[in-house]
Amino acid sequence: IIYIFGNNLNLESDYITITILGSFLFLLIGLFDDLFSLSPFFRLGIQFLTTIILFSYGLKIDAVDLSWINTDLSPFILNKSLSLIFISLWVVGLTNAINWLDGLDALASGITLISTMSISFIFIALDKWELVFLSSAFCGGIFGFLRYNIFPAKIMMGDSGSYFLGSFLGIISIEGLTAGIDNFSEQINQNFYNLEIFPIHIALIIFFVPIFDMSFVIFTRIRNGHSPFYPDRSHIHHKLLNRGINERSTAIIIYAISILFSCLALFIFGIEGKVYFLTTSFIIILISMLYVLNMKRFLESNYTDRKDLS
């Protein structure tokens, strides 16, 4: 990769330290929740406290890109307080969104894999190689875990695993997607030239599935007069299962939706040159992965459909 894309690599930032530290702290929160069943409000409080720690270590956003709404709009500058609030909501929100997807075998891990592979191409385009290497190692770990997490799962990740995956995505997306204004707008204003700007529209599209699922569930529960933490079967995968679709097919359908939105995000971002060919290969690999997952029922003699388990 270094030979193909150049040798101008900057590996001296604190990206890796912040990402590993933050993900490990969220993993500990999930581990204690697995062991002691912590209160939802207590968990949220600890999660927000963790983002404050990460903010103090240098995780921040200077501004949010608004040119996707109107090309005449300038980036919305965030002061220190607004930056902390935005980062806290983003990291904690995405962490819990991935956690809520973990109600179906291989769903949370598969969506995390697709999303991480997608943003890795943006990291390459922005020459953030330390994050490319880190996310590649992360994807390798998920691949190994996914083999035993596909329905019928032999290994469960628990809250510790889903918190680790979600916090990793939240932190690395803030670090990796932020860039100078020239990456998002042709109109370069000197006042914003040195700012690191977060393309929120790209992030929302890449993480469309977990964000939409969490938003839909919260809206449904509040509309029914329940707490957002009230356990029910209002998730997207529950809706598909209720229609008679089996576990594996449900996961594959949601994977396909995630791949579609990831490709849309990469198209909007404007992947060019050599990265374009990598992106094309990525799409082919993911489509092949869906085919292989669907073929597992024919390749494994001990495969059992959901209906046979009920």
Notes on the protein architecture:
- The chain is mostly helical and 310 residues long.
- It contains 13 helices and 3 strands; from the N terminus they run H-H-H-E-E-H-H-H-H-E-H-H-H-H-H-H.
- A 3-stranded mixed beta sheet has the order 2-1-3, with no helix packed on it.
- The protein is globular and about 50 Å long.
- Residues 1-12 and 306-310 have low confidence and may be disordered.
Sheet of most strands: 3 strands, mixed
**Coarse morphology:** globular
Computed Rg? 20 Å
What are the low-pLDDT stretches, counting only 5+ consecutive residues below 50?
1-12, 306-310
Reading the helices and strands in chain order gives: HHHEEHHHHEHHHHHH
Structural class: mainly alpha
The proportion of residues forming helix, as a percent range, comes to 55-70%
Spatial arrangement of strands, main beta sheet = 2-1-3
Count of DSSP-assigned helices: 13
| Beta-strand content | under 5%
* Ends apart, CA distance between termini: 48 Å
Mean pLDDT: 83
In total, how many beta strands? 3
